[in-house]
Amino acid sequence: MKPWLLSYDVGSVLVFVVAGRANHGAEESAAGVLHTAGPFLIALVVGWLLMRAWDDPASLRVGAGVLAVTIGLGMTLRRFVFDDGIQLSFVLVAAAFLTLFLIGWRLGAAAGRRRTIEA
User: Which residues of 11-45 are buried (b: 16+ CB within 10 A; e: fewer)?
Assistant: First the structure.
């Protein structure tokens, strides 16, 4: 059990938000970053709870579930709770970035496990 791996997922969401805000010239205040990250961080925690991710956080199956909840619920919260837009281009970029990062570190972990087993 390695629940500290949640920090990889939280870091992925924060990198996504900070990079996106910087790309669009948005103010880099803590409040602004938290407002943008909020729906995705909430959705990420819900994804971890639904997938019981603490049991096997590096699993690709867990990562896929966490990703789906983070994007789906995150966009829903962004639109209806945080009252922000969800243009198709934003959804596509968010999905691509979060897939790369939320699944990417898990692929790296899987490759590392394979090397350890083969050695």
Answer: ebbbebbbebbeeeeeeeeeeebebbbbbbbbbbb
Tokens matching residue 110: 């899987």
Q: How many CB atoms lie within 10 A of CB 119?
A: 5
| Dihedral sign (CA 44, 46, 50, 52) | positive
Q: What whole-number distance in Å separates Cα of residue 78 and Cα of residue 23?
A: 19
pLDDT digits (tens, 9 = 90+) for 31-78: 999 999 999 999 999 999 999 999 999 999 999 999 999 999 999 999
Specify the pTM: 0.92
Count of CB atoms situated within 10 Å of the CB of 114: 10
Cβ atoms of 100 and 84 within 8 Å: the answer is no
- Say yes or no to pLDDT of 87 above 70: yes
